[in-house]
DNA sequence: GACCGCTATATTTTT
DNA sequence: TATAGCGGTC
């Protein structure tokens, strides 16, 4: 451990009791956790299986495991590590019955969850304009994040609708379908411990040490989860950075890390402030930006790398100009010897990728967009998994309903209702019921399922054996694969390709001799195809993704487009007042600190969003920075601009614009070439214009 | 049951 | 401005 710095070493060797490790961006956070775990095992004699390491993503959990094995060998494998959700699910599998759930319950995904809420609202005859499904779901999630069951949730009347009642209905329906949603995984674990002292005690005795990564992102129910689990020993080590708390909108409460020392009396605090990632110039900018936030642990990153080049700030004409400038910059970095995969463009809103995509394609630069529909959320993957689950004897009613008419079997909405009623009336599990159907033991519409049921019954002996040929045979012979062809050749090919990826993943995973339901758990908790064996990470291409997705990653060269008022900070965050702006500032901080060597920020003078034209001001976050921190690069605009003599105009002047018509200036800002005016147009409303480019005339 | 056209909607989305 | 999903109609 000779290569740890003093602060890291102190954190690694800190004794029992609560420990807070404030780890700035690029300060060797993961190394420190791993070494601390290693220290607990080798120096303190803690048994590996009595250590629990909690993360937020599967990727982080996997990295932890592999680096731990690297450091301490086989013992690393004994450490229990996983996401909050994965660990919770494992506990719930064992104790589900205490919550009146069958042990074979499944996890419901976001799509099915939304469909369920929609159905509930429809049944209750509540139209979307009175209560929007996503609003209801958001409210329920909010309650769950706060650790509130339907009974404990606050009474809430929305347009005469009782939200708490609907929350309760939603839970009932989930239970009837034998499903839990993602938030339930955590909340139900907490309920288990709240309501069953014996289980709580057993779980509290299970681990001697708990370590949590990305602690700034914990929400109240996760906090309670941790509090309950380590109630016996209080050996809780949390690692995080309050300056990187960007999930407040998902219920994360930054106070858990800000007030850690108050919440956990006697806590030790360790600050990791030496940054091994970025150049000094990049860190100077990061520090300058984040220091404007008020509620934060006082710390600042120190560079260990060379000072490097100043980050650049470029003002562009519009989003297409911005994209072109970015393309030029990326090419310049490439010419300087950087690989494409060492570059990233990180934006606030996914919509920003549109113009970038278009221009980068025109310029012939390789890029990949991260985001969008996750692998396991794809239609064909969900279908294939439903078939697989039914084949392997763990499918449920939702899965049967999903595939009963795919391919077309002549079962319409009415038929599906009938099937659902028959199935639930039988009291059988879906696959048992299907066997009954195969034998011709069910009448009515169910008859239309008989061929499928018989096919499944005939293939079932092949299920669970390796190599697993059952699924592909089922999809082929049931006509499912053929039904994909109806979507067009290209699309069908890509979907079938995805199914083959799934097939490989199934075989790979089943080698570990896990049960079908455990396999379904993994699929439910995984979201990307990367982990499923599709590896486009190493592709030779520039990465385009949202700032949120970029947390935890690093690149040699980073571009942050759209550093503007309205986008960063986002308009919608401004409504949340100071707290909203602080989180947006942290988002910019996260973006800046992703860069190792080169950083470029851009701003557009004109940005079209949803068909509306905006004239954004540069972000407040980069205003009033010392001029030595950013190299401003503002080329002469190419727009056909009319030169105005601003001397003729001022606040109150009447003006005329060729497309917006008559208006009056209500604000004036800037000087020289950078004058912005805010104009109240009589018909077009308030617009901000760059005087130099606006064809604005004194009227 | 399929198709077409209208309309609602657009911040971020670790699980 | 772009798109997905829904509802109406054939």
Automatic annotation (TrEMBL):
Q: Which residues bind ATP?
A: 23-30
Q: Which reaction does it catalyse?
A: Couples ATP hydrolysis with the unwinding of duplex DNA by translocating in the 3'-5' direction; ATP + H2O = ADP + phosphate + H(+)
> Which GO cellular component terms, listed alphabetically, does the Swiss-Prot or TrEMBL entry include?
cytosol
- As recorded in UniProt, its EC number(s) are 5.6.2.4
Tell me which Gene Ontology terms the entry assigns under biological process. Answer: recombinational repair
Keyword Phosphoprotein part of the UniProt annotation: no
| Alphabetically ordered keywords of this record | ATP-binding, DNA-binding, Helicase, Hydrolase, Isomerase, Nucleotide-binding
Q: Which GO terms describe its molecular function?
A: 3'-5' DNA helicase activity; ATP binding; ATP hydrolysis activity; DNA binding
**Pfam families, sorted:** PcrA_UvrD_tudor (PF21196), UvrD-helicase (PF00580), UvrD_C (PF13361)
Tell me where in this chain the UvrD-like helicase ATP-binding domain is found.
2-279
Any idea where the UvrD-like helicase C-terminal domain is?
Answer: 280-552
Q: Which PANTHER family match?
A: ATP-DEPENDENT DNA HELICASE SRS2 (PTHR11070:SF2), UVRD / RECB / PCRA DNA HELICASE FAMILY MEMBER (PTHR11070)
Q: Which family does it belong to?
A: Belongs to the helicase family. UvrD subfamily.
The molecule here is called DNA 3'-5' helicase
Taxonomic lineage is:
Bacteria, Pseudomonadati, Pseudomonadota, Candidatius Mariprofundia, Mariprofundales
């Amino acid at each position: 451990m000779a290569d740890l710095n003093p602060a890291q070493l102190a954190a690694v060797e800190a004794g029992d009791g609560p420990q807070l490790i404030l780890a700035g961006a690029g300060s060797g956070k993961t190394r420190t956790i791993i070494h601390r775990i290693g220290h607990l095992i080798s120096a303190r004699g803690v048994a590996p299986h009595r250590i629990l390491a909690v993360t937020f993503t599967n990727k982080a959990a996997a990295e932890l495991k592999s680096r731990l094995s690297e450091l301490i060998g086989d013992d690393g494998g004994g450490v229990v590590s996983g996401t909050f959700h994965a660990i919770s699910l494992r506990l719930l599998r064992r104790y589900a019955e205490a919550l009146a759930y069958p042990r074979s319950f499944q996890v419901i995904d976001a799509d099915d969850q939304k469909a369920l809420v929609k159905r509930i609202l429809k049944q209750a005859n509540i139209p979307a304009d009175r209560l929007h499904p996503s609003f209801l779901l958001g409210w329920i999630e909010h309650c769950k994040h706060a650790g509130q069951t339907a009974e404990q949730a606050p009474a809430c009347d929305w347009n005469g609708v009782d939200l708490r009642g609907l929350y309760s209905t939603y839970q009932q329906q989930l239970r009837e379908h034998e499903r839990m949603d993602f938030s339930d995984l955590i909340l139900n674990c907490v309920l288990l411990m709240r309501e069953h002292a014996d289980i709580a005690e057993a779980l509290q005795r299970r681990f001697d040490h708990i370590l949590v990564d990305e602690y700034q992102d914990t929400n109240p129910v996760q906090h309670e989860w941790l509090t309950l689990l380590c109630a016996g020993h209080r050996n809780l080590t949390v690692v995080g950075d309050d300056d990187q708390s960007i999930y407040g909108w998902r219920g994360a409460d930054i106070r858990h890390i800000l007030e850690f020392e108050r919440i956990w009396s006697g806590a030790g605090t360790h600050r990791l402030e030496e940054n091994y990632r970025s150049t000094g110039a990049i860190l100077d900018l990061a520090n300058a930006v984040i220091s404007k936030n008020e509620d934060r642990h006082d710390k600042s990153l120190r560079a260990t790398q060379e000072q490097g080049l100043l980050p650049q700030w470029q003002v562009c004409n519009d989003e297409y100009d911005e994209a072109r400038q970015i393309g030029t910059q990326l090419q310049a970095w490439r010419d300087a010897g950087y690989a494409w995969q060492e570059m990233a463009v990180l934006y606030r809103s996914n919509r920003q990728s549109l113009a970038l995509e278009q221009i980068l394609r025109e310029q012939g630069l390789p890029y990949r967009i991260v985001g969008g529909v996750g692998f396991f959320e794809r239609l064909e993957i969900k279908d294939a998994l439903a078939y697989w689950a039914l084949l392997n004897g763990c499918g449920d009613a939702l899965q049967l309903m999903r595939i009963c008419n795919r391919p077309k079997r002549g079962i319409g909405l009415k038929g599906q209702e009938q099937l659902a009623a028959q199935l639930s009336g039988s009291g059988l599990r879906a696959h048992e019921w299907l066997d009954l159907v195969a034998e011709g033991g069910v009448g009515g519409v169910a008859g239309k399922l008989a061929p499928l049921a018989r096919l499944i019954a005939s293939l079932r002996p092949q299920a669970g054996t390796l190599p697993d040929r059952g699924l592909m045979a089922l999809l082929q012979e049931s006509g499912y694969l053929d039904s994909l062809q109806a979507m067009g050749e290209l699309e069908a090919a890509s979907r079938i390709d995805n199914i083959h990826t799934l097939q490989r993943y199934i075989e790979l995973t089943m080698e570990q001799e896990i049960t079908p339901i455990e396999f379904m758990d993994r699929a439910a908790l995984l979201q990307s195809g990367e982990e499923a064996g599709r590896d486009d990470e190493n592709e030779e291409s520039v990465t385009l993704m949202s700032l949120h997705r970029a947390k935890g990653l690093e690149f040699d060269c980073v571009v942050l487009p759209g550093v503007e008022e309205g986008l960063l900070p986002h308009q919608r965050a401004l409504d949340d007042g100071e707290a909203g702006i602080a989180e947006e500032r942290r988002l910019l901080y996260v973006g800046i600190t992703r860069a190792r060597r080169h950083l470029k920020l851009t701003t557009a003078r004109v940005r079209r969003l949803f068909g509306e034209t905006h004239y954004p001001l540069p972000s407040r976050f980069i205003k009033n920075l010392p001029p030595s921190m950013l190299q401003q690069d503002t080329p002469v605009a190419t727009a056909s601009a009319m030169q105005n003599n601003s001397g003729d105009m001022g606040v109150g002047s009447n003006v005329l614009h060729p497309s917006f018509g008559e208006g009056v200036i209500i604000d004036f800002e800037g000087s020289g070439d950078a004058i912005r005016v805010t104009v109240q147009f009589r018909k077009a409303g308030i617009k901000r214009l760059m005087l130099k480019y606006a064809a604005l005339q004194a009227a």
